[in-house]
Specification:
This protein starts with a helix and ends with a helix. It has a single domain (3-281), classed as Spore Coat Polysaccharide Biosynthesis Protein SpsA, Chain A. 34% of the residues lie in helices and 26% in strands. It has 282 residues and is of the alpha/beta class. The protein contains eleven helices and 13 strands.
Length: 282
């Protein structure tokens, strides 16, 4: 029996945002479809989830996001055009995804924060633990992916877990920041979480990045969580409440993360992945 699959089957992808930092490119194209070399960001996230044994991909979309659904579907005209040519090899990975996973979709009615996006996905998740991947946080490494690392921890602790990395003091205003008791060098039991604090107010420099494992009680907690910063429903506030009721862990993951929601991070990721692509193909 594959215990990983029996514990967590579903991965939620909040993908309703406008991607304003990449305008005008994202005026008509979802930011999650922006390519890193020859593969869109959302596909990297789906492949990471598959590596961790997840087979149900739940995507929270919004207006203008139809390309996400089309990407994970058959394009009859394209397939007929390239059938029997060497170009067909370029579809190997996406065909594997479509054969081994199932996709479901729902819409976030308004942009009210990540907490609201996750709550919008409840109808797709149901009453079971699940993963959350923010596709514009691209995580790469030579060993196990971040989600697989976190699921190994979930087998032991059976509680919500967030991925963290240390950031510069001046960058704390960009992230949810956590503090807590060190259980080991790379694992903390969270006692405090603050959404985008100033460097002076930050309880640490440990920042949450776009990988979460959440227990299903988070939905009820989100429903009772008041809106926070910028009038948005913050997942950080809900997790802080969950930590007070029980246990939430923060895991300093192994690997490299690129902030592809920023132009600088996107270019760095593209350059890095191109070098890997070149080494494999030339």
């Amino acid at each position: 029996m594959n215990t990983t699959k029996s514990l967590i089957r579903k991965c939620l992808f909040p993908a309703a945002g406008y991607g304003t930092r990449f305008l005008p490119a994202t005026k008509a194209m979802p930011k999650e479809m922006m390519p890193i070399v020859n593969k869109p960001l959302i596909q990297y996230g789906v492949e990471e989830a598959m590596e961790a044994g997840l087979t149900e991909m739940a995507i929270v979309t919004g207006r203008g996001k139809r390309a996400l659904e089309d990407h994970f579907d058959v394009n009859v005209e394209l397939e007929a055009q390239i059938q029997g040519t060497d170009k067909e090899l370029h579809l190997t990975e996406i065909r594997k995804i479509m054969a081994e996973t199932r996709f479901t979709y729902t819409r976030q009615k308004a942009m009210r924060g990540l907490g609201d996006a996750i709550l919008s996905g409840e109808t797709l998740i149901g009453d079971e633990p699940f993963a959350v991947v923010l596709a514009d946080d691209l995580c790469l490494n030579d060993g196990s992916g971040v989600l697989l690392q976190m699921i190994e921890l979930f087998k032991q602790f059976r509680c919500s877990i967030v991925a963290i990395q240390e950031v510069a003091a001046e960058d704390t205003e960009k992230y949810g920041i956590v503090a807590g008791e060190a259980l080991r060098e790379d694992l903390y039991r969270i006692s405090q979480m603050v959404e985008k604090p100033s460097p002076e107010e930050a309880p640490s420099r440990m920042a949450i990045i776009g990988r979460y494992l959440l227990t299903p009680d988070i939905f009820d907690i989100l429903r009772s969580t008041p809106t926070g910063r910028n009038g948005e429903l913050q997942i950080t506030d809900a997790l802080a409440a969950q930590a007070q009721r029980g246990c939430v862990l923060a895991y300093r993951f192994k690997g490299r993360r690129f902030d592809c929601g920023s132009i600088t991070g996107y270019v760095e990721a593209t350059n890095f992945c191109y070098e890997q692509y070149r080494l494999r193909n030339f």
